[in-house]
Amino acid sequence: MTTIEIMLVIAIILQTVATVISILLINQTKFNVLWICCIVGFTLLTAERVCQLLAYDNVDVPPQTFIWLGIIISFCFSVGLLFANVLIRYIDRINHNRRLLENRLMTAVLRTEERSRADFSRELHDGLGPLLSSAKMSLSALSTEKGGDSRTLIDNTMYVIDEAIRSLREISNNLSPHVLNNFGLARGIQNFIDKSCAMHSTAIEFKTNLRTERFDSNIEVILYRVVCELINNSLKHSGCSRIELALILCGDVLQLDFTDNGRGFSPREMMDCGMGLSNINSRIGSLNGSFDIESRDGEGMHARVKVNIDSAIILTVPRRRDKIKNRK
Question: pLDDT-derived band of residue 287, with 50, 70 and 90 as boundaries?
Fold first, then answer.
């Protein structure tokens, strides 16, 4: 058997295998015409190779056979390509709808989480807070009637109650930050930074061009949680002495830049193992935003978040939206 004959036999085998695969794929999608065209095309290609093999062995094969086979094969694969294009568009549409569904689910989860935080914060503030305040007032009244050791014991108890009230306020504020809810994103972040600086020696510089602008509550809450997560990670794990944070509104894009001078890390490893980076990525993804992080060992880290406030979530208060657009 010559080399040409061997190549023709191999081509016949490969095209037969392709025909079988096309038959198996018929039930996998609803685009049966695509696979039927492939089956016919590959079958005719196999027949053409057989005719060529016979012609090579000096078997008389009419020339018109090759012409008609070529025409039909070209027609089948042209129709198949048209339906393949339809199939690709269909798959893209399914993927797009899946991403939209994932974002909606994430948004629903975040809203439920924030609503639960707010409810729990309100219960703590309105329920337990007054009880502690009443206990403090009762002890204050009692302390005027007692002396000596009893007075010291009462004073210590009042100190413990004061600490409990202060802790209660901090817990309530962390669960549902009142400054963020009442005054907006910039004030909320600044308030969190002031508290962090009071408890740590790390210098935190915050720059922003935001004033009284308000955004959809989802945007504000998610970006606030992202900033808190980034600052807490740097304070706990990086060993940094300085953090720089910038929140800039440019047109319809809200950009957050975060930098520390800590020990750095491998972003891919940290994204897999924790430190809240995957959580940040999911939160920003729910806003159709982007989250990029750069870091190397010993060189600190830089994170950048971009959110388009129009494509993420439409602002809930049109008047505030107009105020933002007037800044352009």
Answer: confident
Please state, in angstroms and rounded to a whole number, the distance separating the CA atoms of residues 70 and 66. 6
Residue 116's identity, in one-letter code, is S
Confidence band for 319, pLDDT divided at 50, 70 and 90: very low
Locate tokens 């974002």: which residue?
103
218 and 84 fall within a common domain: no
Distance CA 42, CA 30 (A): 20
Q: Give 13 or 141, the one with higher predicted confidence.
A: 13
- For the stretch 47-62, pLDDT in tens is 888 888 888 777 777 8
| Residue-range definition of the domain harbouring residue 281 | 177-328
Name the domain boundary from 52, 69, 103: 103
CA distance 175 to 185: 16
Q: Inform me whether the pLDDT recorded for 122 exceeds 70.
A: no
Same-domain check for residues 183 and 326: yes
Q: What separation in angstroms does the CA of 186 have from each of 13, 183, 213, 293?
A: 69, 8, 9, 22
Residue with tokens 């549902």: 176
Per-residue pLDDT for 7 more than 70? yes
pTM, whole model, 2 decimals?
0.55
End-to-end CA distance of the chain: 78
Q: How far apart are CA 154 and CA 144, in angstroms?
A: 10
Q: Tell me, what's the pLDDT at 315?
A: 35
Q: Is residue 155 part of a domain?
A: no
- Pick the last residue of a domain from 103, 136, 153: 103
Same domain as 313, residue 224: yes
Confidence of residue 20 (pLDDT cuts 50, 70, 90): confident
Distance, CA of 34 to CA of 14 (rounded, Å):
19
Task: Quote the crossing angle between the two packed helices 217-233 and 277-285, to the nearest 10°.
Answer: 160
Encoded tokens for 237 = 């794990």
Number of domains in the chain: 2
Output DSSP code: residue 7. H
Q: What CATH number is associated with residue 261?
A: 3.30.565.10
Does residue 192 sit in the same domain as residue 314?
Answer: yes
In this structure, are 48 and 189 located in the same domain?
no
